[in-house]
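[Solved] Which block belongs to which protein?

Original post:
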Amino acid sequence: MAGGNKGTIAAIDLTRFLCALMVLAHHYAAMFALRPDTFLHLAGPDVTLARDWAWWSWPGWVGVELFFVISGYVIAMSAANSRPRAFLKRRLLRLAPVAWICSSLTAVVLATTAVWPIHEVAVRWLTSLLFWPSQPQIDGSYWSLGLEVNFYLLIALQLGWRGGGARAVERTGIMLAIVGAVYWLLRIDGLLPPSDRTVDLLLLPYGGFFATGIALSGLHASGWTKLRGSMLLLGLASSTAEILSQSEFFTRGLGLSPQPWLPLSIFAVGVAAIGAAGWLQAPLTRVFGIRLIAFAGLMTYPLYLIHHYMGAVLIVALLRRGVEDHVAMVSAAAVMLVLAGAITGLAERPARRALDRLISRRVAGHDGPPGTPLPTS
C-alpha cells in the first residue's frame, strides 16, 4: 500500500488524503478559531481568527477515526502472509523515517518561537523520535501514533502466537470488536469514567475502528463469513458510541450546538468508500490516475504530522503581518501541502532505504547475510 503504485487501492488512498485535509481544517478553522487554549494561542496570545468557517470544519476530527479504520484494512492485507519480524520491519520502515523527519522539522520551527524553552523542545523531540507514547510529543497530532504502534504490536503477537495468516489477524479483530463493545456498554452505563491516556493506549475506546477495517478487508478479500459479519457489527456499534461521545466533547468545548449527525454521516461515507474499494478502483484511477492517487496517499502521513503546530506558527506569523484571517489559514494549509509533498517526493524514500540498510546490517550480524530487502507497504 505504501510502497508505490503497484499496491495502490484508490479509494483507500483518496479517503486517507481527504481525512488528513479534514483534520487540518478542524484544527485551523474550528479549534484555533473557537478555543482559547490551543497551540495557536500559545504561539500568539495576541491573535484571533475568524470563526465563520467553524460550522463546517468542526467535525473534521472524525478523519482520525477513519485513519484507524483504514489502518485495520491495510494491516489485515499486509499481515496476512507475514511473519512477525517481517511485519514489524515493514511497519517500522513505514512509520519511523517520516516521523523522524517531521518531528525534526517541527522541533526546528518551535525552537525559533518562545512557546517552550529549548530544553523542553529537545525533550519533546526525543520522545517523538522514540515513539514514547506516554510523554508530551513535539506535536499534538502524534497522539494517535501510540495507538497505531500498539495495534501493530498486537497483530505481531497474534502472528507469532497462533501461527500467522489471515485467521490470526481476524482473531485480533474480533477481540478488539468485543472488548470495544463491552467498554462502551460499561461507559454508557456510567460504570467507567471517561478515558485517559492509558485507556486509549490499551485501544479500548478505539478498538472498534481497527476491527471495522479488518472486517472490511476480509469481506473484500474473500467474502462474507459469520465472524466477519459479527466483527463488523460490533466494530461499527462501538465506533458509533465513540463518535457520539467525541461529538459531545467537541461541540461542548467549541461552544457549538450538538450535531452528532454530521460526524456520523462523514464516518458512514468514509466507511462506505472503504468497503466499496474494489468497485471504485477502476473509475477512480480513470479520473485521477494511479500515480497521483498513490502520491496523495503517501503525502497523508507527513501532512498529518506537520500541519498542526507548524501550521499554527505560520498562521500567527501571517496574522501579525496583516494577512486576512481566511487567507492566512488557506496559505498555511497550502504551505503544509507543499512541504508534505516535498517530504514524500524527496526525503522519505532515501531515509527509508538508509534505515532498511541499517536494519539489514544488524540482522546480518546475527543471522547471516541479509536477504532481499522487504517491501515497505
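(Second protein starts here: sequence line, then its C-alpha cells.)
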Amino acid sequence: MQLNDAQRLDWLRLIRAEGIGPRTFRTLINRFGGAGAALEALPNITGRAGRRVTPPTRAQAEAELAAAARIGARFVASGEADYPKLLQAADSAPPLLAVRGDPDILNRPAVAIVGSRNASAAGLSVTERLARDLGAAGLVVVSGLARGIDARAHKAALLPGTVAVLAGGHDRIYPANHAALVEAILEAGGAVVAEMPMGWEPRGRDFPRRNRIISGLSLGTVVVEAARRSGSLITARFALEQGREVFAVPGSPLDPRAEGTNDLIRQGATLVAEAAHVLEAVAPLIEREAYGTEPLALDRPDLADAPIFWDELDVDGIVLPMPVDALEPPEPADDRARLIGLLSPTPIGTDDLARAAGLSVRVVQTTLLELELDGRIERHGSGAVSLVG
C-alpha cells in the first residue's frame, strides 16, 4: 500500500480528530472504506452519540505537514513499505508515524532497553555494556530518550544504530536538554519517531503511549532498573501483550530501583547479565521472522484500577486502562545529591561513578570522603564503593 498526498492528508486529519486513537481509526476505516469517507461521516455519527466531533481542517493538517517537513520529518502510514513491520503487528500501532532520520533502521532487528530515570551508576554501567554489545551484534537499540537508563542506552548504541521514541511532538523534545542527543542519533544514521502532533508538549499519560511503541518496535524489551509501578514496567507489559520477549537485569533487594526488575524475573522474565543472554533468545526469532503473533495476557491486579491513558471515542466499546507515568524528576541540586542518587547497595568503581555523574574523579573522591565520614557509604577491597543500606 502507498498513500497519495490527498490520502495522507485525510489520514492525518482523521487521526488528529478529538477522541480518535489507533483502534477507533481502524474501526472507522473498515466501516467507511477510507479516511475521506470516515471524515465526512464523523460529525454525524459522533453527534448521534452525544459528542459531536469536527475533524481538523485541511489547512490545519497541511500546516502540520509543512511544519514536520521543515525539520526533516515525514509521515509514514501503516501498511506502507517504510512503516516498521514489527510495530504494525501490534494491536494499538499508530496509523501514522512521523519519522526523522533513516527509515530503513526501523525494519532492522531491534531490542528495547528501558529503565529508571534516577538510575544508579551500576545500572548505567550495565546499560552501556548491554547496548554496546547488542549493537555490535547487529541489533538496533530502541529507547524513550528519558534521562538515566534510556539516554545511556542511546549514547552507547549511536554508531551501530539507535531509535528514540518521543512522548511529544518532534519539535518538543523532552527533556529539552536531550535535543543534542536527538541530533547525535540522527547524524549517526539512527531515527527518531513520534505519533503526537507537532507542537505537542508531553503530559504524564503520553509516556505510556510512547512505551507501547518502544516495545512494538522491538523483538524484546530489557528492563535494567525499575521501581514497582515504574513506567518501564508498563513497557514490559506491552511487550508481553504484543507477544515479545521480556528481559530483566537483577538488582540488589535493598535497592528500590531493583524491586520491579526482580519482580519481573519472579514472574518469568528472562534474567539478563550480558548481551549474550538476549541474543540467545532473539536469534531464532530473527532467523524465522516469527514474532508478534501470539499476544500474551499479563495479570496485574495492581494496575487494574489505573486510569485510561487513551481517551478514544467508544465506537466498539473499547477501553484500555493504563497507569500514568510521571514527568522527568528534577535534576539533583548539587554534586553530593547527584552522587547519592547514583550510588546503590551494588558496589561501583570510582571511575564509573565519576563518568555517570559527569564529574571529575577528584571531585568524586572528595565527596565520597565526606559521605564516608557521615557513614553514608562503605568501601570495598577493589576500590569500589556502595551505599550503606
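Accepted answer:
You had them paired correctly. Confirming on the second one: The CA atoms of residues 349 and 374 lie 20 Å apart.
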